[in-house]
């Protein structure tokens, strides 16, 4: 359904270009949930924004293609692309639940994209918005409330309803549960999972929290310093991680079902993307790096469908 | 309360601490002399912090954990209760202490801030940042003494060699390094008690353990006692000795880390533990998803505050507030029905 091939998105900055997303390839099928994970600055959000071309003005897609149902979104005209947004692909932005318009009721805000993207009347749009309010588990009686009357979790539900307003096939969720408490987080995760099944939605979930991906996605893609390092189904990625970074990242999470000890950390910090290392970008922090790692790592597909970019595997 | 603990073992004893904030009402309500309303941020909690331990206060946002921490530091004035800081030969009640006394005690209780991007002054070099507490408290005499302490504080937090960091500014440091500088500046006065408020929530996962390792190191050397404030049970699991779980201004359960996490007694704790995120897609477990949200602190539910969301609540829970009772060794729970079978 969506196939991203060799995507390169660079930011212009003083002293050169920041290679935020550098030759990233991944795909996802109908009704599939893909988790895109990595630490801050790894390029996961930029990769997601590139899909819909919602990049800031100093960023450019300089290479690669984003194929959605056979069409390349990266090269599509602005006009055509605008028709794809919301209707085919929509996004729940990071922290957007704090950006709801404070002087409009939530039902009006959900109806807004419907009015803009279809020829429906105000009444029809409002009715559709009311159905969406119920769909995301908010009491219909509260549809005419204002954002300040809602808690964080409820506002995130509103954002999800809004993203679903024009019945898209693919929804991108950027850190949808990050600022929420653990119980609310679980409620939202459950909601997304239910909606996905009910509407056969495809989703791309962007997060730094691997456990969210383990619990809600079918496939996982791990990014490091602008590169995709590993991509496979979640059971494989979490059960038999091949890339040393993925393995390290999983081990860095304390596990209440494991032993009581401080998890292992990955020494060092990610490279400066203005001048990334020429070879494997993880090599300076990698416990098993060798001489060959000073050259760019090969793309390997192992065990049928397990992508890993590492010399040592 | 807890058994077999002589009072001297405690660094801090908190008794019936209440922190209420008045709700500002409108002009008209003031004229009509309506009853004044309060936010019951912390509403009568008791706990001890033992010398040399990591004591965790765990709870969701708005449960009162940060307010508790700020009261201990006297950054806010509690409404009532007792907060006793115990040292070898004296005990001081921080609640009734005068501003002057609090000032002299400040170096002994320090805070590690959550956000290393906001807690460091962008215009101060690492050296300035670390010497400031020494100057303010007039603890370092000569320049050499000051430099020695700055050097050892930097080495303690793993910023080695220290001289390469002295003249760096916050923007020249990574997130992990900033938090290390933050810890160094909290530790430079050799505090007795250190309160760490979500110390790693802004640090990347791959670097969290290093930061926590520094705290554990200081603890192991017996140099300080920690109160760790967090929403994350897995963090408490990794570093905590004891845990107190807070809900709506109350402690609902308290005990040794292992016992609280592996054998939770309170329905709230049981539910929270059942949804702790785990990076393992094959894990099968029964998740207890609570409906609803944390109650409004102005208008707390009667009886047990958890009753509107509790899966095992009965009539009695609506009227009678549960008291802390011993459920296992050193493990206390505030629930009428903790022994009942749980769904």
Question: Can you describe what's shown?
Answer:
The complex is a heterodimer of chains A (313) and B (343). Chain A has helices at residues 44-52, 78-84, 106-117, 122-135, 152-163, 182-199, 210-216, 234-239, 244-251; strands at 2-13, 16-28, 33-37, 59-68, 71-72, 89-92, 170-174, 202-207, 219-224, 227-233, 300-302, 306-308. Chain A is 30% helix and 24% strand. Chain A has nine helices and twelve strands. Chain A has 313 residues and is an alpha/beta fold. In chain A, the strands form two sheets. Chain A has an eight-stranded mixed sheet, with helices on both faces. In chain A, strands 2-1-4-5 form a four-stranded antiparallel sheet. The mean pLDDT of chain A is 93. In chain A, β1 (2-13) and β2 (16-28) form a beta hairpin. In chain A, α3 (106-117) packs across α4 (122-135), α3 packs parallel to α5 (152-163) and α4 (122-135) packs across α5. Chain A has one domain (2-88, 168-308): 3-Layer(aba) Sandwich (Rossmann fold). Chain A starts with a strand and ends in a 5-residue tail after the last strand. The radius of gyration of chain A is 20 Å and the shape is globular. With 343 residues, chain B is of the alpha/beta class. Chain B has helices at 27-31, 65-72, 99-105, 116-119, 126-136, 143-156, 175-187, 205-220, 233-239, 257-262, 267-274, 315-319; strands spanning 10-22, 38-50, 54-58, 80-86, 91-93, 109-112, 193-197, 225-230, 242-247, 250-256, 325-328, 331-333. In chain B, the strands form two sheets. Chain B has an eight-stranded mixed sheet, sandwiched between helices. In chain B, strands 2-1-4-5 form a four-stranded antiparallel sheet, covered by helices on one side. In chain B, a hairpin with a 4-residue loop joins β4 (80-86) and β5 (91-93). In chain B, α7 packs parallel to α8. The two termini of chain B are 29 Å apart. The interface between A and B is large, with 42 and 44 residues.
């Amino acid at each position: 359904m969506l196939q991203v091939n060799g995507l390169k998105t660079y930011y212009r900055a003083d002293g050169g270009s920041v290679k935020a997303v550098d030759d990233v390839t991944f795909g996802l099928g109908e009704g599939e949930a893909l988790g895109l994970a990595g630490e801050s600055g790894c390029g996961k959000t930029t990769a997601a924004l590139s899909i819909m071309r919602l990049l800031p003005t100093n960023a450019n897609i300089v290479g690669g293609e984003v194929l959605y149902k056979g069409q390349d979104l990266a090269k599509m005209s602005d006009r055509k692309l605008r028709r794809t947004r919301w209707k085919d692909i929509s996004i729940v932005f990071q922290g957007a639940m704090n950006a709801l318009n404070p002087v409009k009721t939530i039902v009006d805000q959900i109806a807004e994209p419907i009015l803009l993207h279809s020829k429906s009347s105000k009444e029809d749009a409002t009715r559709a918005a009311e159905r969406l309010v119920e769909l995301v588990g908010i009491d219909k009686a509260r549809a005419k409330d204002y954002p300040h009357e809602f808690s964080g979790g409820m506002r995130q539900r509103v954002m999800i309803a809004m993203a679903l307003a024009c019945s898209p096939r693919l929804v991108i969720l950027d850190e949808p549960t990050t600022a929420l408490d653990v119980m609310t987080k679980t409620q939202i995760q459950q909601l997304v999972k239910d909606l996905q099944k009910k509407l056969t939605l495809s989703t791309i979930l962007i997060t730094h929290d691997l456990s969210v991906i383990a619990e809600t996605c079918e496939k996982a893609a791990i990014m490091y310093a602008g590169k995709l390092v590993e991509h496979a189904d979640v059971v494989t990625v979490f059960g038999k991680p091949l890339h040393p970074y993925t393995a390290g990242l999983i081990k860095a999470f304390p596990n209440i079902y494991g032993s009581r000890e401080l998890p292992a950390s990955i020494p060092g910090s990610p490279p400066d993307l203005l001048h990334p290392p020429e070879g494997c970008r993880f090599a300076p922090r990698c416990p098993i790096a060798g001489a060959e790692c000073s050259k760019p790592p090969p793309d390997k597909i192992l065990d049928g469908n397990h992508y890993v970019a590492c010399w040592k595997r | 309360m807890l058994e077999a603990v002589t009072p001297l073992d405690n660094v801090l004893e908190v008794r019936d601490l209440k922190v209420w904030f008045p709700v500002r009402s409108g002009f008209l309500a003031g004229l009509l002399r309506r009853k004044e309303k309060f936010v019951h941020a912390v509403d009568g909690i008791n706990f001890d912090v033992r010398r040399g331990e990591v004591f965790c206060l765990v709870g969701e946002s708005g449960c009162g954990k940060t307010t508790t921490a700020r009261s201990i530091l006297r950054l806010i004035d509690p409404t009532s209760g007792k907060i006793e800081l115990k040292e070898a030969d004296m005990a001081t009640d921080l609640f009734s202490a005068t501003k002057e006394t609090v000032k002299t005690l400040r170096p002994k209780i320090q805070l590690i801030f959550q956000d290393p991007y906001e807690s460091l002054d962008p215009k101060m070099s690492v050296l300035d940042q670390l010497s400031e507490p020494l100057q303010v408290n007039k603890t370092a005499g000569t320049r050499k003494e000051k430099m020695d302490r700055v050097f050892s504080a930097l080495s303690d937090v793993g910023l080695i060699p220290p001289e390469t960091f002295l003249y760096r500014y916050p923007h020249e440091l990574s997130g992990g390094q900033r938090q290390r500088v933050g810890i160094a500046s909290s530790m430079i006065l050799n505090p007795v008690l250190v309160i760490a408020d979500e110390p790693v929530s802004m640090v990347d996962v791959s670097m969290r353990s290093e930061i926590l390792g520094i705290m554990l190191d200081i603890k192991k050397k017996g140099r300080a006692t920690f109160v760790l404030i967090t929403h994350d049970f897995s963090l408490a699991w990794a570093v905590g000795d004891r845990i107190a779980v807070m809900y709506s201004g109350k402690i609902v359960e308290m005990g040794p880390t292992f016992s609280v996490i592996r054998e939770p007694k309170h329905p709230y704790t049981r539910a929270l533990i059942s949804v702790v995120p785990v990076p393992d897609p094959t894990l099968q477990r029964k998740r207890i998803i609570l409906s609803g949200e944390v109650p409004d602190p102005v208008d707390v539910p009667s009886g047990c505050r958890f009753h509107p969301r509790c899966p095992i609540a009965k009539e009695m829970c609506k009227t009678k507030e549960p008291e802390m009772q011993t459920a296992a060794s050193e493990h206390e729970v505030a629930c009428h029905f903790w022994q009942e079978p749980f769904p």
